[in-house]
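hey so u asked for the seq, here:
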Amino acid sequence: MKHKSSSYTEELKRLSALRNLDKIRTGVNSLYYRVVKTHTDRDGLGNFPVNGQSFRINKEYLLSEFSQIQEAHSIERAKYYIKRLIKSLNEIRLGKLNDINLNRWKEYNDIVTDSLWEIDKRDRSGTHTAGYWGNFVPQIPNQLLRRYTKKNDWVLDAFLGSGTTLIECKKLGRNGIGVELQPSIARKAQQAIDKENSEIPMRCPVIVGDSKQLNLSQEIKKYGTSSVQFVLLHPPYWDIIKFSNNDSDLSNSKTINDFLSDFGKVVDNCSKILDQGRYLAVVIGDKYSDGNWIPLGFYTMQEVLNRNYSLKSIIVKNFKQTKAKRGQERLWRYRALVGGFYVFKHEYIFLFKKIVPINSLSSKLQK
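ran it, structure tokens below
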């Protein structure tokens, strides 16, 4: 029995040898309806071998490619589309930092590439929960991990909270290390992470400690790695929510300068174990206090830029409401009208790339 990809490839090659555009369209139309009638599951059409491995292909992607060939206005263009489709069915070209097959990039419709993220509802699948005050939607780590990590890479979340990032790590086949200051929260997070199903056993330990001072190099060696390939930071938005009575908690910083100084120490600590050329993301919102908008997001952005990082993207993500404002929409609208400000409906995701320091690069060139 022939593999599906072989039969499609052979037919496409035959069509590409034709010299009549109408005949090419008729042949592609036949392939189109063969796919339409083919039994499939939610993962797409299966049994497509590449490099000795079998993989699935998105049914809608295949139909879209067939439609594009049919709609070509010239035989040269139709043959170009056929050649490109044959290549996508028989070759895998993965991204440098991820597992995205660039030969079939059209399949990844659910991966966001715009700088405005409008997420209607939080993902509640698996062991995710919205019970922890201040946690972020799972879609954020899901998107970032799929863009900037590969399977079996190591991810560090230095403000773990309820464990959202590590739950996504298990789902996506990444190893993760989380640091949480509060032992009781760390225990609950580890329980949720351990309950999450994973096709492949992944290492996702939760470490209790202060991300500013913890010897991360020593800690991660306990789990068989000397570095991480992605860092995700979702710090407290200064003192908007008090997460504990611990003086080391950034939510207890007395001034904005204290908060930024401590945040910078966390970035420094995480940077020691992040590989060169890899990415660090910060998820944070702004603050309103004493009649003034405090651009907390941009202050933290600058703290990272003061280190050896380049800014790759600023993403604005919407949010519908917070626990503090739930059921008080009219009150906040009134306050905004009286106070002359706008009610927060967004937060930021800052994306940075770790770069080689100029002095370090110069010393390497001299050697």
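The domain at 116-366 is CATH 3.40.50.150 (Rossmann fold). Residues 98 and 150 are 4 Å apart (CA to CA).
lmk if thats what u needed
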